[in-house]
Amino acid sequence: MVESLPVRCPVCRRDHMYATPAYPCPCGAPTTTPLLRGAPVTRITHRTWTDDWVTARCRACGRHDQWPQPELCCPCGAVLRIPVRPVAAPGRAPGTASRPVRPSHILLPRTAAAPRPGFRPLTIRTAQDAVGAAALYLKWLGYREVVQPAGRPSSRIDLRAAGLIAQVDSTTRPTALRDVECLWLNALSASVSGVFFSLAGYAPDARQRADGLVIPLFVMDLTGTPQPVNGPAEELVSPGA
């Protein structure tokens, strides 16, 4: 049974109902992270790779594995960390891998846009994974010839496709206004569209500017599933776009 939790954004005070994702345990049973009711949610302004994973116990076989920290993307642009009950990870048997198992299916929060059937996200553990996840998403949206430059150019464009360029911000700070404006200028000079992906969300002025420039903004959690955070992104994801 999927566990849900009422969540209020501390930035815009909007209420949401968060449904915890289910991850596949190697035994085949779905595993969910235990939510901590009554604890306040916090806005994510900085990320660390080690702190964005939580331990969850499979109720079927008792196995402990690490999964992405539950997060919710508010339409106001804030990325919220959902509190979970701590689970002590027991000692692993010799020879048991300590790396998290990549989930094969992700259930998004009810407040997120429903994904099109068939998209398989790439779990993000490194900055390179973030670029790879964005590339998979663009291909899923229907863009052709999605390629990554051999070396990141001075323009900081991470991905190119037919009629489109994309930038992926995998840093631990919200994407700044200057980054959005630079993407727009690069897209304008190349006569293509621009799309932005960010792990830590966007500064308020950056999001406002993107709305005015009609730049789609997506935020990604560590499951590798981008979620739209502004109107242009919603239109890009909508069927028939």
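The record above closes out task 2.4. Task 2.5 opens with a second protein, given below.
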Amino acid sequence: MKRAAGVLFLTLGLIFIFSSEAWSIPAFARKYSMSCKVCHNPFPKLKPYGDEFAGNGYVIKDKETPRYNLDTGDNTLSLLRELPIAIRFDGYLSFDNAHNQRFDFSAPFVIKLMSGGEISKNISYYLYFIFTEGGEIAGLEDAFIMFNNLFKTDLDLYVGQFQVSDPLFKRELRLTYEDYRIYGVKVGQARADLTYDRGVMLTYGLPTGTDLTLEIVNGMGLDPVDDFETFDADKYKNFLV
């Protein structure tokens, strides 16, 4: 291991919602007047309740939030009263025991802008942009629209850019400094792995508590468009069940 000792000394989640009373209060916690610990413990690990909340399009069933949307008098129009935005700052103090025997202040190591929430009934979104990761601009990672409870069933549809590994385990919720490298492994000459990709994901919750998932993705990761303005460079798609 390159860094034999690492101490996380600063992880801040600063939530900015454009309201005079909303400074540094987490968007979802403020929306429902609850502590962040209801869904996370320890941060950023999700509790079962938090996992259910995320799977329901960041909505708590049967709990009204009348101040979350503007009253326009039009039942077909849904406008957010405030835009939920968060900034996460990660920094580390580390000691490289294997090579140069030095301490290193790695701060900021990651700065990311996040936003997510309910757009309309049963329609939600989530995205985040990494301003810096290890000194480089990483760009847009998660960015998807979620259609919840399709056909009045427990069928959900995600469309956009997401982590293929999310149904298995969300990498962003790990408590370790180093990543789970197996998720980034590519077999042979394949360009696909279990990190980010573009496509669609269907999830269905059975009454037994078992979740079924089907993913169809390009298999190209986050590569930019080619000369033909397309993300997928071949005619094949990748399936995950």
